[in-house]
Write a structure and sequence with these properties.
Blueprint lengths: L1 E4 L5 E7 L3 E8 L8 H10 L7 E6 L3 E7 L3 H10 L5 E4 L1
Antiparallel strand pairs: 1-6, 2-3, 3-5, 4-5
Length: about 90
């Protein structure tokens, strides 16, 4: 399991685990230049070979809901880190 941290003045991330997946709500609290980091995360997952690894729903006010299959949880967290949305990731 990965534990992560983020700058609460820039992003709000909440997650809820279900049986087969994890639901994330990610809200960007500041304007980023286009493309913003969440659009880059979305692009990464939408252009990989697995179509159902992560499903993205985009809402107003820079809010995203992402449903990630548990098998791809680590990949999603590491992609958030790669795009600068997380400040720290470590194994628990």
């Amino acid at each position: 399991m990965l534990v992560y941290e983020f700058d609460k003045s820039e992003v709000d991330i909440r997650e809820t685990a279900n049986e087969d997946d994890v639901e994330f709500t990610v809200r960007l609290l500041k304007d980023y230049p286009e493309p913003n980091p969440m659009k880059l995360v979305q692009h990464t997952f939408e252009h990989d070979p697995v179509l159902t690894d992560a499903l993205f729903y985009v809402y107003p006010n820079r809010e995203y809901k992402v449903i990630v299959r548990k098998a791809y949880y680590d990949d999603f967290i590491l992609e958030l880190m790669r795009r600068g949305l997380l400040t720290c990731v470590r194994r628990a």
